[in-house]
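Worked example

This section walks through a single chain of length 295. The input is the sequence exactly as stored; nothing has been trimmed or padded.
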Amino acid sequence: MKIVLTGCSGLVGSDLWKRLENQHELFALGRNKPEFIEQNFWREGDIVDTESTIKIIEKLNPDCVIHSAAISNPDECELNPKLAYQVNGLGTRNLVLACQKFDTEMLYISTDQIFDGKKESPYTELDSPNPVNVYGKSKLWGEKYVKTLLRRFYIVRTTLVYGPRRPTFVDRVVQSCKTREPVTAATNIINTLTYSKDFADAMSYLIETHRYGTIHCVNEGACSRYECAHFIAKLLNAEPGFIIKGEKENLSLKATRPGYSPLENFVWNLESYPPLRNWQKALPDFIEMKYTALR
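Given that input, the structure is written out below as tokens.
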């Protein structure tokens, strides 16, 4: 299969590239070439530019476009909503138009932030979106373009991704275990941790099914940021006195967070796809891989 992948510099995109490059004819599309991609598999382009995006897709003529590029930091989106809507909304539309023109499959990676956090159980694909921040609104806008303009698509929602490509909350806690620097962790931000490697493995499987639609894909289970921090401390045999209990209201966040937004792999499990492991199984593997010297 010939695949175009956007967002190769990100947590999700980098592991997707490594997972797919030996199985498919893979090309990267973006503004800056990651160091691990050879020049001949790279196409420079800005998805906000409609005409150039369509021309690149036309020339490559892929079987599938996997769209992981996004402005994904909620606070950054809140501070610069114009950019968020341009990239997450119109940028997605431009790729959709290119796919529509050539009847190309698209896999669009979305987020738990399209939900408002008012539900008292994990969100399934049957629940209605109601985003409370610019990031969620811009990603939902992208979802709507995919749904209304394409006939062959996957919309894959995931949440709280961590991995080796760049530091996340998980890395901050690991470093605090080593340095004893205080880290504040909210008790009322509850969602699902997702290891980028597990997500990439799942997407590699999904694109071979051609069973289109909206699907959630996360490591099983849910936890608060506070519970996550304590789990990491215990894993590294560190006394958790440096973990400060907090709430989202006193974290000086620019963007409102849903609070409770775990995703349930409802459709994934109904389809009897390979089960995703629990977050408590995945997280130790990541820490072992990246921070062996700390243990």
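What to look for: The chain has a mean pLDDT of 96.
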